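pasting for the record
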Amino acid sequence: MAEETRRLLSRHLAGREEDADGTVLLDVPYPDAAVVAMLLDVAAECFGERGESVEETRQAALETLLQLAGFDEESQLNR
C-alpha cells in the first residue's frame, strides 16, 4: 500500500505548492484520486486511524503511509 501511494503521489508532484510550514499541497486528478482515496481508507482500517471526519481519518492514514513510503526522514524504506 505504501509503495503504491508513493508511486501515485510521485506522479503528481510536479507543480506542487508548499505552505510556509512545509505542508505540500498536491492535486491528484481522477482516476488516481479515487485510487488514493481507496488506499487511504484501507490504510486507515489497517492502522486503526480514527478522526472526527472522513478527511481527518484519511489525513492520519496519509501521514503514516508517507512515513512508510519514504517521503520523510523517518521512513522505514530509507534504512
